[in-house]
Amino acid sequence: MRFWRLVALLLLFSFSAHADGIRVKSAGFSANDEYRLNAYFEISLNSTLEEALKKGVPLTFLTEFELTRVRWYWFNEKIVDATWHTKLSYNALTQQYRLSSGTLYQNFDNLSDAVSVLGSLLHRQVIDRAVLTKGADYTGMLRMSLDVSMLPKPFQIDALASNEWNLSSDWFKWNFVP
Question: Which of 37, 53, 81, 166: CA 20 to 30 A from 64?
Fold first, then answer.
């Protein structure tokens, strides 16, 4: 009986440990004159990050994309290496969440809507069609993470000591032939 309680307890902790984080649900290209990246992330913030956000600490997310051409005779050739920053913040005066990327921003009334839009990367231009060789094999890789280097300095120190600030997806890879 004690064995089954221990197993149930371990399963409970393992499910709760994987509940918070970032997971790439899908990624791929839509092609016109250039290839545009479409990706969907499942993002779940833990209570520490939500509390910090409510207290005015902006969270900056880093999205990384790489496209390589597979070569059998040498190392793979890196075609694209791109990164994007998106900041999620909370304004206590207006009680709204804000997503901003560069000079563009969008406000939300609740956190779930803001996180849903943060997890949707739609029609991001990454490469011109003429750069790719038709019929060649390419590998796309994508991931998103919380950029702790963009946190205020006291929180950066806390992030080094605590796993609650480490929010990152694994690399999502897919093959692509133009």
Answer: 53
What number of other Cβ atoms are within 10 A of residue 35's Cβ? 23
| Angstrom distance (rounded) from CA 6 to CA 105 | 48
Q: What is the pTM of this model?
A: 0.83
Distance CA 94, CA 69 (A): 47
Query: How far is 116 from 40, CA to CA, in rounded Å?
Result: 9
* 98: phi then psi, degrees, rounded to nearest 5: -130, 130
| Token pair recorded at residue 101 | 């990327």
Tens-digit pLDDT profile for residues 119-167: 999 989 888 888 888 888 999 999 999 999 998 887 877 777 788 888 9
- CA 86-88-92 angle, 5° bins: 155
